[in-house]
Amino acid sequence: MNHKNLILVIVFVLLNACKTEAQKEESFKIQKTDAEWKAELTDLQYYVLRKQGTERAFSSPLDKNYSPGTYVCAACSTPLFKSEHKFNSGSGWPSFDREIEGNVAFSVDYNIGVARTEEHCATCGGHLGHVFNDGPRKTTGKRHCINGAALKFIPKK
Ligand code: FE
Prior knowledge:
Blueprint: H1 3-23, H2 34-40, H3 43-49, E1 69-73, E2 79-82, E3 86-87, E4 95-96, E5 104-109, E6 116-121, E7 127-132, E8 143-146, E9 151-155
Antiparallel strand pairs: 1-2, 1-9, 3-4, 4-8, 5-6, 6-7, 7-8
Bound molecules: fe (iii) ion (FE).
Fe (iii) ion (FE) is lined by residues 73, 75-76, 78, 121, 123-124, 126.
């Protein structure tokens, strides 16, 4: 084997090692088949939550919602974010400076070629959005950029 082929083999082995690592499935309390999710979610909810899609900026009615209440998972109703942690990031997506700890889980995705911190519902695994480090400096410095389609708003009584 010449050097070029050896390098190709090494690259191939490394790529597959990464793949296995990234594709290790977390096990979620709520597990449904793809067909079940498709049947019970709207097309947009399914695209975002199950296909890691992103809704159009400024398209969610929740983007400009600042009423007191709780944002729960649109798929399984797990409480994910609180209104007191919501802020106007100007991005066009509902933004929070923190999650409800323990109810949201994180992974790394490379979907746009760079590493981003992906976040998903810890109960059903539904994709929510991404976390960035350009949030409010006075609080956490984090910006949880969340698809409104992945959330349901429960107003405070
Ligand atoms: Fe969920």
